[in-house]
Amino acid sequence: MKIDLLKKIPQHMDTIILLLGEGYKLDSFELLPPHVKELAEAWIEHSNFKADFAAVQSATAVHKGKKYNLIICGAGETKAMSVDKMRRLFATVVRAAIKLKAKTLYLYQSFPISIGEEAYGHALAEAALLTEYRFFKYLSSDDKHEIDALHLVKKIKNNRQFNCGVLEGRIFAESTNFARDLVNEPANVIFPESLADLTKKAALKYGFNIEIFNAEKLRRLKMDAFLAVGKGSKSEPRLIIMRYQGNPDLRNKTIGLIGKGLTYDSGGYCIKSPQGMVSMKSDMAGAAAVIGTMIAVTSLKLKVNLVAIVAACENMISGEAYHTGDLIRSMNGKTIEVINTDAEGRLTLVDAIHYAISREKVHKVLDIATLTGAAVTALGNRISAVVTNDDAWLEMLKKASEFTGEKIWQLPAHEEYKELIKSQIADLKNSGGPVAGTISAALFIQEFVDKKPWIHIDIAGTASRDSEAGMYSVGATGVGVRLITQLLREMEQQS
Fold first, then answer.
1. Per-domain residue ranges of the chain
2. Which of 393, 395, 439, 487 has the fewest CB atoms nearer than 10 Å to its CB?
């Protein structure tokens, strides 16, 4: 989709969008064709349209024998307009345009740009490209509708900043859509080896470094916790290591991103219900998030140093699968009693985290994972749970959350909760039971971060949607790509 500022008003417009703030006046649309203004005035009066936030109406009209669409959307009070509110407004009108099968959109806005031209362009591009996304790859009749162009019809102060924002927003959105594609693919297409291959292709295309370890290498590294999870599958595990050095002067300041990479999770011998297994192809959404982030960061050429690691495997049942009651040893030497074979993601994450700290020498760790059903119970599918040992770093993540609209909520990491993961026969047990499940899982991971600044993001609820809303279609959301990329932008500015 082309997104730009309109330089010349054509005689015929496919689809016209009017964004109306409180107390709007149609006279403020000096570039709006007279016949459209007349239609809009009559329509607004007839329908008693109120410019409430995201209230939208659409219709089709004819002028000089040519059909066009008119979409009117309320913006509510515009003085306190945020980047996220603008993004949601844009998503509302783009979704309305898709329903009308519109091809070229002309966007008029009755109120001034109060968030800055760069942020405005960023939000516009993100909303347009994320809202248009659908995963129709395997439909024999492809119903996907693509919009050719979105033109902003407005005089703005700084065209260069607007265009820069559009470029950045496009990178954020396309990286997120890449992650969405990975998560939406079925498990017979995305498995450890194919995920590693696709990541290698992305590394070659976007320019970050990659190294992939096979099972034999993992055995030599004594990544036994990770290997235990994948033992039941015919598909061999893969450790995918991605590196990007955007600031060579700060080689000792490398951030470790760890994404959970369970390409399918049956639950193992603690088997899930059939209904519970349907969505388990998405148990690698954390992996997709860090891969998408690497694409975004490389494309933006951010001045940060990153190592992103995915421990990719399947949790299946066979004569080789690990059992409840097993005692396994992690890469850092700590022993773990397996209480629940469906609490597998944390076992893969801790070996990946220890590798990042001990071999890659990262100084901060952020892990992202579809980790616990408890996170879904507590926060639903709109907010990701966060646990951390570094409040200053969390404040930066909160700022990134406000910009991207990917909401987070901090859960406590009190010492008392560590009682839940104490074992009588090992250093730790891999499940704390039915209470405080998100917290105990995070505290299990914290035992392996070696006191480094650490943030854990549980996206079990937010990784996918079962209905269309705003920028999100049914299926994968790509959550985490925009949030982490914006966090890294915040960190770049402070370095």
1. 2-157, 174-494
2. 395
Dist. CA 367–CA 75, nearest whole Å: 37
Burial class (CB within 10 angstroms; exposed 0-12, middle 13-18, buried 19+) of 156: middle
- In the residue annotation, 346 being an active-site residue is answered as yes
> Would you give the DSSP letter of residue 7?
S
Spacing of C-alpha 69 from chain mean position: 32
Provide the terminal-to-terminal Cα distance of the chain, rounded to the nearest Å: 35
Neighbour tally for 110: CB within 10 Å = 21
How many residues make up the chain in this entry? 495
Angle between helical axes of 159-184 and 285-300 (0-180°, round to 10):
150
Q: What is the CATH number of domain 2-157?
A: 3.40.220.10
Rg value, the chain, Cα: 24
Domain 174-494 has CATH 3.40.630.10: yes
pLDDT averaged per 10 residues, the chain (length 495): 89 92 78 88 87 93 93 92 96 96 94 94 98 92 84 92 98 98 98 98 98 98 98 98 95 95 98 94 98 98 98 98 98 98 98 98 98 97 98 98 98 96 98 96 98 98 95 97 98 88
**Per the structure block, which two tokens stand in for 172?**
């954020």
> Rounded CA gap, 242 and 212, in Å?
9
pLDDT of residue 427: 98
Question: How high is the pLDDT of residue 435?
Answer: 95
Name the nearest CA neighbour of 286 among 34, 65, 79, 456: 456
Residue 220 known to be catalytic: no
Structure tokens at 183: 């998560």
- Dig out the tokens for 105 from the structure: 């959109």
How do beta strands 104-109 and 15-21 pair? parallel
The closest alpha carbon to 70, from 85, 83, 55, 58, belongs to 58
Residue identified by tokens 């891969």 is 291
333 Cβ contact list (under 8 Å, min separation 6): none
Of 222, 243, 272, 398, which residue is the catalytic one? 272
pLDDT of residue 142: 65
Burial class for 206, CB neighbours closer than 10 Å (0-12, 13-18, 19+): middle
Q: Would you say 304 and 246 are in contact if contact means Cβ atoms under 8 Å apart? A: yes
SS3 content of the chain, % helix, strand, coil (to 5): 40, 20, 40
